[in-house]
Design goal:
alpha/beta, Rossmann fold, two-stranded parallel ribbon, 10 helices
């Protein structure tokens, strides 16, 4: 993919699960990329963020930096707020000062329950970009901090693009597939949540989609866009697909969210409507099943078992 020849793109959080493949895709598109992690630019410190933008003078900023440990946010909400909200605001303000286009990465966790659902009724549609997020009191701590980050970005930068994704996994960070395969190889049955539904999203595909959006979004209008792989699954479906494709014989036992004992509340319905992304880019992200096959055949091939 070409089209960013010579453009300076700054990626805070550029060494993580999404940032790593994103930096690679940006460079393939011809961009001059600077990638930072917290050790080289702590986005909670406005002075460090301002120094980077003053020195590098980016034309595009894609903020992948985040506190993403969902359960840890329950006891560390102040730290998460400093990164996910205050830090996002610092990045937005700095991008605005140098006239850079800002892309802020966000999450399905900003939604609380399910659209069009009532008293446990089955949801009838995916979350649309114009659906109201929150309210904060109905979200887990991680969701509250990411929603606050969206709000600060939109307040600071009138041309910002917020990209929400969900159920992200890939080779460049710990994640659900690695944990499932590690447990499956260790033997014994797997107990996996079966009452949450979403779209497993491969970081390579989300990175590609973000680059397509940067290329397509020339009008600098303030937008929210949803990006995931196509199709839906429960975590149990995802786990079964992983072990089947990996050729591992083990039982996958469905359990409820309540039985999982996780600290943070999770939405039962995390499916995001990607229609706007498809309209803007004239591109459809492939199915999550095709992406999982690619992940297992390529990203994990010849690597030591987790």
């Amino acid at each position: 993919m070409a089209g960013l020849d010579g453009q300076r793109v700054w990626v805070p959080g550029g060494t993580g699960l999404l940032g790593t493949p994103l930096v690679r895709r940006l460079r393939e598109a011809g961009a001059d990329v600077r990638a930072d992690d917290a050790s080289t630019c702590d986005i909670t410190r406005a002075v460090q963020v301002a120094a980077v933008t003053k020195e590098f003078v980016p034309q595009v900023v894609i903020n992948c930096a985040a506190f993403t440990q969902v359960d840890a946010c329950e006891t560390g909400e102040a730290e998460a707020m400093a990164v996910n909200a205050d830090g996002a605001g610092h990045v937005a303000a700095a991008a605005q000062r140098v006239g850079a286009r800002l892309v802020q990465i966000s999450t399905d966790y900003v939604f609380a329950s399910a659209p069009d659902s009532h008293q446990g009724a089955t949801p009838r549609r995916a979350w649309r970009v114009d659906d109201a997020a929150g309210p904060p009191e109905a979200l887990c701590a991680y969701g509250r901090t990411k929603l606050a980050g969206e709000q600060r970005v939109l307040k600071a930068d009138s041309g910002a693009l917020i990209v929400r994704t969900a159920w992200l996994y890939g080779r460049d960070g710990p994640g659900f597939p690695q944990a499932i395969l590690r447990q499956a190889r260790a033997g014994g049955p797997l107990r996996v949540v079966d009452d949450q539904t979403g779209s497993p999203s491969y970081a390579e595909d989300v990175a590609d989609a973000i680059v397509r959006l940067v290329l397509a979004e020339a009008d600098r209008a303030n937008r929210v866009v949803h990006v995931t792989n196509a199709g839906i699954a429960t975590w149990c479906d995802f786990a079964r697909s992983l072990v089947d494709l990996a050729g591992i014989k083990t039982d996958v036992i469905p359990i409820t969210t309540a039985e999982s004992g996780r600290a943070a509340r999770r939405s039962a319905w995390s499916v995001l409507d990607t229609t706007l992304y498809e309209q803007l880019t004239h591109h459809t992200v492939r199915s999550w099943r095709d992406a999982v096959t690619d992940f297992l055949q390529n990203d994990l091939r010849d690597r030591a078992p987790d």
